[in-house]
Every structure is written in structure tokens, then in C-alpha cells.
Amino acid sequence: METPPVVIVGAGLAGLACALELKQRNIAALIVEASDRVGGRIATDKVDGYLLDRGFQVLLTAYPECQKLLDYQTLKLGNFTPGALVFKDDNLHAVADPTRAPLELFTTLASPIGTTLDKMKVWLLKEDLLEKPVDKIFAQQETQTIDELKRLGFTSKFIESFFRPFLGGIFLENKLTTTNKMFEFVFNMFSQGHAALPAGGMQAIPEQLATKLGTSRIRLKTRVTKINDGVVELESGEKLQASAIVVATEGTDASKLLNDLPIIETRAVTCLYYEASKAPIKQAMLILNGQGTGIVNNVCVPTNVCASYGSGKGHLVSVSVLGNPFETDESANDAVKSELKTWFGSDVDGWKLLAVYRVLNALPDQTPPKIENPERSVKLRSNLFICGDHRDNASINGALVSGRRAAQAVADSINHAKKI
Ligand SMILES: Cc1cc2nc3c(=O)[nH]c(=O)nc-3n(C[C@H](O)[C@H](O)[C@H](O)COP(=O)(O)OP(=O)(O)OC[C@H]3O[C@@H](n4cnc5c(N)ncnc54)[C@H](O)[C@@H]3O)c2cc1C
């Protein structure tokens, strides 16, 4: 009798990376995916000709696993200018890395966002972290990011106006209780490469992996409702025999499928997209809310980064608000527009709302000691495995690494069984 394939539940980055690694090892695998597309939390919609990522996110080109798995050339990446603009005291101020954005040198030095010592400390931190390999960052003793920033001696003004909105937008929480491992990791990645958007939208990333894999290995619109010993039960009632099962869903979905898994807490974000006839800035930069008040965390103009995000008619503006604080799209729109009018003036009245995305389980919580062990076990039982960003860390890189690790564990288990 033919050996049944390994069945992977979920075609997000972790599931795709797992399937690719199994393919490399000549182990037959099938991905079953509940939705009608691959990519999970990385998705792009086309609305009125604009590319809208379901929640603003970026690819950091220095991610080691992405460098191994992705073809950046084909993705036609548009790069952000390193650094950010900070809105504070009714003005936008540049906080750029002068070694990488020389045109911003003088504006950065002159900006009231932090003292000269703060700016020097950022540069020193960058130099320090460049020497620190990623595995060392994740293996170190951890603390909350806010405590680490204070320990490094940054002024509270700089933390409030730069680090809080910058890291808040990455961690999706602005108390900065997230582990300093993630702070150092992302800071390192930003320093070594670019924040970028693929010309075809973020969804081009999982689509590239799926193409590499071959679509015959993926069954879309196939929801798994139950997992038993070596059997995957589908919503349709069909039962799939599996030589091993890999649960590659988001953490809360994994807890529903596997009763004995602890509940994984998550962070939410709300993202609004607008069409603007005039772009609020010309730069390909992220704008941070450095005021310490208000609901908006960050704003950017994706069409300044990748023209292909546009429709040819106007400019695309993305606005991120942490959490899910609005009852309706209308109240979200009203609150965001009235705040951004104080930033960009009455032009904001003319912005046309394209979409509001509420991403409830956007990232797993990473408050210490959640990722004290940077690579949580991917093997649950002899033929049951798990992967996803909740097993490594909340990033594109973390999801891909967890998928590869799960595939390695499956292969080890198959080889072990063959020896007995
Ligand atoms: C708004 C937002 C912004 C982000 N920003 C960044 C960023 O800037 N940089 C960065 O590196 N990372 C960012 N991330 C994180 C990154 O996108 C995720 O860590 C990564 O995509 C998670 O991949 P995954 O494969 O672990 O899970 P998922 O992408 O959640 O994939 C799980 C898949 O399982 C499927 N599934 C679930 N239940 C079932 C079932 N019962 N049967 C079959 N299939 C099922 C789902 O449909 C889904 O396709 C962001 C995430 C969000 C949401």
C-alpha cells in the first residue's frame, strides 16, 4: 500500500516553508488550506485599482530565511528610505540613518526628536548589533523592550516620540513590553537591509513560494475540523490519511484544533486605506505619531515606495491604529480623518476611504518569557507536528523558520521509524 502523504494544515508562510523543505527531502506532502488563497496573514486585495495589503506590513530584506527562500529580483521590491519621519509639535521631523540616507543628515541632526546623544546612541546600538548574530540575539537573557531602552540611556522624550510609535507599529503594542530579543532582531534587520514592498503587493511573497512548490500540492477551500491519530477530518466530512500531520495555522486556530495546546494571546491592528489626490509626503518613508497622544500610530504612502500599488489616478495612503478600538468603519474613518487633519490640513477632507481592515489575531504576544526559548518544540507527538510564527517569533522570518524546523522534525521521525 502507498504511504500516505504528510498533511500540512494551513498555507501561510510556515505551511509553505514546511512543504518546500519536505519537497527538498523527497517526502510527499499535501497542504490543506481553509481559505481560497495561499499566504494566511499576508494578503493583498485589489480595490479601485489599488493594492491593499490586509494590514500594513513590510518585508525586511535582511531576513536570513527570506534570503534563502525568496527571489527578490522577481518580487521587484520597492525600498523604503531608511529612517522615519516623526510628526511632533505640528511638524514632520526626519530621523534617518545618515550613513544610509545621506540627504537626511542635516535634517536628522537638527531635528528636535531626541538629543544629539540619543542619535549617537542609535548609531552605536546599530554598530553593536551588526556584530551580533541573530541566534545570539535570540539566545540571550531577555527583558521587556521598554526596560532595555531605559537601560541603554535613551531620553524619555526620544523613547516617547520615536521608539514608542516605531516599535509599537512592529510589535502592535505601544507599552513596549515585548521582549528585547525582538527589538534587537528587527533593529538589526532594519540596519542591514531595507524595509520593502513587492511590486505585486505583499501577497506576492507567499505566491512565489507556492509557485516553487507546485499548486498540485495545495488544496484550497479545504477546512480541517478535527485531527485524530494520523487522520485529518475535513469540513466536508472527508477523511485524509496522513503519515504525519503538521498544524501550520495561526496560534489561536491551532488551540482550537488541538485541545491540549495552551491558549496563545494575540495583538490586533486596524488599518485604513485612502485614495488621496495629493500625497501628504513625497518621501518613501514611514511617518510616526511622535505626539504621545491620539489614535494613529503610523502613516505611509505605499505608492511612494512602489508605484504599482497605485491605480494611476491618485496616491495610496495607509494609516495604522493599534488594537481594534472602533465599533464601525464610519467611526474609524471619522476619528482618523479628524486626527490627520491636524497633521496634513484640510486636504485630508478629500481623501476617499478605500477599506478598513481589522486584523484581530495579527501577531502572537511576545512579552517575556513567551519566547524565552526561541525555538519552541515543533513535535507534539510521534506523528503530530506544529509550526507557525507562535513557535519561533512573530515575523515573516520566524514563520518561515518554524516551517523548516517542522519539516526537519518530520523527516527525522520518518528516518527514525525506518531504522526500527
Ligand atoms: C497586520 C500585520 C502586520 C504584520 N507586519 C509584519 C511586518 O511588517 N514584518 C514581518 O516580518 N511580519 C509582519 N507580520 C507578521 C507575519 O505576517 C506573520 O508572522 C506570518 O505571516 C505568519 O505566518 P504563519 O504561516 O505562521 O500563519 P498564517 O499566515 O496565519 O497562516 C495560517 C494559515 O492556516 C490557515 N488555517 C487556519 N485554520 C485552518 C483550518 N482549520 N484548516 C485549514 N487551514 C486553516 C489559514 O487560513 C492561514 O492561511 C504582520 C502580520 C500582520 C497580520
Description of the structure:
The protein is an alpha+beta fold and 420 residues long. The protein folds into two domains: 6-42 and 203-264 and 377-419, FAD/NAD(P)-binding domain; 46-198 and 267-364, Alpha-Beta Complex (Polyamine Oxidase, Chain A, domain 2), CATH 3.90.660. The chain is built from 14 helices and 21 strands. It has helices spanning 13-24, 64-69, 72-75, 105-110, 116-130, 134-139, 145-151, 156-171, 180-192, 204-213, 251-257, 302-305, 329-344, 396-419; strands at residues 6-9, 29-32, 44-47, 50-53, 59-60, 77-79, 84-88, 91-95, 195-198, 218-219, 224-228, 231-234, 239-241, 244-247, 266-276, 286-289, 296-300, 315-322, 352-364, 379-381, 384-386. It has a seven-stranded mixed β-sheet, with helices on both faces. Helix 1 (13-24) packs parallel to helix 10 (204-213) and helix 7 (145-151) packs across helix 9. The longest helix has 24 residues, at 396-419. The radius of gyration is 22 Å and the shape is globular. It binds flavin-adenine dinucleotide. Flavin-adenine dinucleotide (FAD) binds at residues 9-15, 32-35, 40-42, 55, 57-58, 223-224, 248-250, 253, 257, 269, 359, 362-363, 388-389, 394-396, 399.
